[in-house]
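Entry for the shared binder. Reason: the reviewer on the internal report wants the predicted structure included alongside the sequence.
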Amino acid sequence: MMKLSPRWHEKYLGIPWAGVPHYPDSLSCGELCRVALKEQAGIDTPVIQVPDAKVLKDCLKALRPELYGFEPVEGEPRNLDVAWLGRRTMIDHVGLGVETSGGIMVLHCQQGGDVHLDSLAQIRALGYSRVLWYRHREASCLK
């Protein structure tokens, strides 16, 4: 089983959001997930087919877990599981699970901001009432 550093997420903190991201200078929420899965676990996921993440309707079409090899998490979320975040009926944001001594947190990059780490209570305070956890089918080797 591959073990992640407890501080694996820190390299992404503070990277600014961009609708057309160019890592390592900028990221979108989906690109953060794609890059971290590749760098931290060697998991390749397809490029997210959104020309500009500022266009919400394109993001809504693209944010479908099955397009990227994700399956619903059974049990507790863990490092590198993807949180699909929604307001009411729309899932319009994603982030990554980060295991901490205080429980699971979400590493995410919100439009107009940068990559930061929030508790689930903070995620809900941002208006995301729905948090759906998914794990990549190749991530069973992670701990």
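Summary line for the report: The chain has one domain: 8-141.
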